[in-house]
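A.,

Following up on our hallway conversation. Structure tokens first:
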């Protein structure tokens, strides 16, 4: 029997897998990619009786390959919080999917594991910009304000590392970062003793300093759209900067449009934190769009569709 671990390359996916493998250490084939590379089940070549763990990627975007695996009697355990559509009923599938805007995959895994590795779930919630959920989940830990700030910083940095047009844009490939983190049962040990955290934090701080010179291209009291250049630093920081702006301006919807080499945009959308809904529905109106209620994106938006996007964006968040 072969085990496959399929996970989103962001903080939520990495921390979810880390919790699962702390609870049940096994040898497995890792399948992941940049944060926006979510059609990952196509890379799983499993056989009858094999075990596939899927974390933090949309079932709807992987439906055909999930059905392929189930039909050949591969066992699939699925945790996610993105739009799923109809969930297949199959004896080989155990699915825990909750699209509530205040949860994430790592929090679902945390519940499944009865809070065995709660600090990592809190880290992931911070990384997914679910600050209130992170603080609520952390209450049993009795952490100091400084410790909570450390987990917030860690989650932000792990999430930051997942953004880019390809793996070369990233500081660490997600599988390499997961392997480093897998050595630490306690996130505070990783923060205090591993040079990988220093590299992530330095990269994040440098990229944030670059992006703060970029001004919104379109801005109202309830909407903000920023155009970012075709640069590695912009591709790396676009999503976490959108999170930062959403946190600073609770009643405003934000969009980051990062120019790509093919003269298209990669889009990150954040619904207002005061009403965390609508981002996924907006982005699914475009061919390569998807995500969750509070945060979603479009992998390729043609430059000539910019005006159409602005129209849909302003209509989505009134």
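Then the amino acids I'd put at each of the 318 positions:
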């Amino acid at each position: 029997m072969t085990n496959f671990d399929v996970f989103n390359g962001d903080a939520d996916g990495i921390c979810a897998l880390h919790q699962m493998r702390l609870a049940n250490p096994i040898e497995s084939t890792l399948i992941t990619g940049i944060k926006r590379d979510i059609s990952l089940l196509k890379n799983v070549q499993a056989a009858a009786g094999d075990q596939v763990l899927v974390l933090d990627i949309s079932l709807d975007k992987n439906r055909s390959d999930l059905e392929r695996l189930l039909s050949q009697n591969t066992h699939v355990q699925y945790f996610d919080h993105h739009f799923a559509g109809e969930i297949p009923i199959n004896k080989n599938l155990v699915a825990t999917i909750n699209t509530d805007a205040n949860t994430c995959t790592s929090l679902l895994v945390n519940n499944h594991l009865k809070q065995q590795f709660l600090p990592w779930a809190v880290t992931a919630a911070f990384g997914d910009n679910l600050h209130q959920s992170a603080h609520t989940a952390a209450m049993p830990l009795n952490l100091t304000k400084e410790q909570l700030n450390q987990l917030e910083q860690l989650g932000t940095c792990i999430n930051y590392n997942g953004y880019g047009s390809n793996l070369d844009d990233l500081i660490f490939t997600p599988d390499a970062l997961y392997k480093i983190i897998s050595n630490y049962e306690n996130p505070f040990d990783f923060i205090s003793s591993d040079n990988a955290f220093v590299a992530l934090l330095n990269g994040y701080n440098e990229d944030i300093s670059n992006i703060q010179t970029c001004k919104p291209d379109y801005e109202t009291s309830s909407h903000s759209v920023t155009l970012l250049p075709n640069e590695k630093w912009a591709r790396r920081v676009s999503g976490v900067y959108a999170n930062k702006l959403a946190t600073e301006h609770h009643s405003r919807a934000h969009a980051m449009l990062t120019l790509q080499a093919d003269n298209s945009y990669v889009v990150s959308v954040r619904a207002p934190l005061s009403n965390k809904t609508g981002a996924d529905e907006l982005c699914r109106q475009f061919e390569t769009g998807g995500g969750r209620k509070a945060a979603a994106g479009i992998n390729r938006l043609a430059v000539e569709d910019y005006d159409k996007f602005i129209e849909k964006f302003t209509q989505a968040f009134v």
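Residues 218-316 form a domain with the Diaminopimelate Epimerase; Chain A, domain 1 fold (CATH 3.10.310.30). Curious whether your intuition agrees with the design.

B.
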